[in-house]
Amino acid sequence: MTPELTALTLAALLQVVQLCLYSVAAQRQVGRKTALKPRDEPVELTGTSGRLHRAMNNHFEGLMLFGIACLVITVTAQSTGFTGFCAVTYLIARVLYIPAYVFGWVPWRSVIWLVGLLATTSMLLAALI
């Protein structure tokens, strides 16, 4: 497996971890009865639960682009030390983004997010060059 696909697999597992963290926090906030009901009416999550939910959704957005970058690099056999470094950088940024978002690390949350985006963009550009 290429380093890029390894990082993508770990990023997908990170998404599962984020889903679990969010689910536990949300259930604690709204209670089991509300958590088990259908969402006919939206439930407003605040505090840590809301931040975990938003961080998870943000990772879904970034994961789409990162997945495309990993797929393009791997299918076209363009994996290099640079693209592997970018993939690991993306993964580290996404791991750091969770506490940065939850604990409101300003401006570091935005910086960490940008590092992940630049790593993904660099992989996409490397595939074209």
Fold blueprint:
Layout: H1 3-30, H2 32-36, H3 47-75, H4 81-102, H5 108-128
Briefly summarize what is shown:
This protein is an all-alpha fold. 81% of the residues lie in helices and 0% in strands. The two termini are 23 Å apart.
Features of this protein?
129 residues; mainly alpha; Four Helix Bundle (Hemerythrin (Met), subunit A)
Describe this structure in words.
The protein is an all-alpha fold and 129 residues long. The chain has one domain: Up-down Bundle (Four Helix Bundle (Hemerythrin (Met), subunit A)), CATH 1.20.120.550. It is 81% helix and 0% strand. The protein has five helices and no strands. It has helices spanning 3-30, 32-36, 47-75, 81-102, 108-128. The mean pLDDT is 95. It is found in: Membrane. Keywords: Membrane, Transmembrane, Transmembrane helix. It comes from Roseovarius aestuarii.
Give the terminus-to-terminus CA distance.
23 Å
Instruction: Label the structural class.
Output: mainly alpha
Shape: elongated
Average pLDDT taken over every residue: 95
Helix content: over 70%
**CATH class bucket:** Mainly Alpha
Largest sheet, in brief, is: none
Q: What's the helix-strand series?
A: HHHHH
Q: What name goes with the CATH superfamily? A: Membrane associated eicosanoid/glutathione metabolism-like domain
How many distinct folded domains? 1
Using the coordinates shown, work out and report the CATH topology: Four Helix Bundle (Hemerythrin (Met), subunit A)
Oligomeric form: single chain
List segments where confidence is low: pLDDT < 50 over at least 5 consecutive residues.
none
Protein name: MAPEG family protein
Transmembrane segments: 59-77, 110-128
Main location: membrane
Subcellular location: Membrane
